[in-house]
Amino acid sequence: MDVTTENWLISLWLVVIGGCIGSFLNVIVYRVPLGLSVTHPGSHCPRCKHAVRWYDNIPVASWIWLRGKCRDCGESFSVRYAVIEAIVAMIFLAIGHCEGLSGGSNLPSTFYLAETGEVLYGDFTGWILCVYHLTLICTLICLVLIEYDQQTIARKLLGFSLLVGLLAPLIWPFLHPVRSTASWLEMSTSGWGAFASGVTGFVAGTVLALFAMALQGMRGSALTSTVLCSAIVGSFLGWPAVTAIVTTTVAFGSFSNLNPKKMPWTGPLLVITTIWTLAWKMIVARLSFLEDPSYWQTFVAALVLAVLCALPSLWKKRTN
């Protein structure tokens, strides 16, 4: 089989798997906040309770074929289900190409392919990275949709994502392309160094989001979900990345008059995180200070910038 045919087949596989995962994310978003099992019972119509047949449960295609209605009773299903399936399928295709097929072509030049990773995992290194970053993005999609539906974010979902974000780099250190090199964080093994990078990213994401959102007057569950999402991004991508992502999110929300009641802050955070993951190398090539984690001043500058970006919203609330 030639390389072109193989790549086309892999691309098709990524789209199919992505669509299936998107369908499963819809189940998580609906059932987990209600305390329901995500495995039993199977997919069924909420009105007539008939089980959805396997050929009526094909991502996107079945929704289009049935025109968004139940085959048995005609109950309408939201177009959001098909949209989420299609978006996740495209994200799987994009990240799969950048990291799985291209071996991390989207990652900065400091991408750590540890000797152990190259020897033990070979061509699978890129695919392990792909799964790691897709786990982050899929988690954020669930959290954004749950918040948009004004449901309570499930602790199990948060706990799972944090465990993956912090502990997976202990096994595969190359999952953190950029690490903190502060002298007090130097570790004897690359695994612990990657773990330290995740911890500092967790702290940076928490502090930045907490300060910026609190200054804008965000309180309650909205503040909690935004801070937790930022912390999760930091644990997966490290503090240089989460610093830039959260700062950009705050700036976008402040100058676009984003209404948190209609669109949660976590929405732009999800979009910017996805863009960052796909264009990581391109971004740090133009902002080289983000590629060198020894610049702790970057975090301080970002904190100040986040606060400044939050001031317009704070001023509007005080003058109204």
Spell out the key features of this protein.
mainly alpha; 65% helix; 320 residues; single chain; globular
Structural overview:
The relative contact order is 0.10. The chain starts with a helix and ends with a helix. The chain is built from twelve helices and no strands. With about 325 residues, the protein is mainly alpha-helical. Helix 5 runs antiparallel to helix 6 (about 155-170).
Shape estimate: globular
Tell me the β content.
under 5%
* Helix count from the secondary structure assignment: 12
Q: Assembly state here? A: single chain
Tell me about the largest β-sheet. Answer: none
How does the helix and strand content classify structurally? mainly alpha
Q: Which H/E pattern describes the elements?
A: HHHHHHHHHHHH
Mean pLDDT, all residues:
78
Question: Compute the gyration radius: what is it?
Answer: 21 Å
Q: Identify low-pLDDT runs.
A: 112-121
> Whole-Å distance between the termini?
67 Å
Helix content: 55-70%
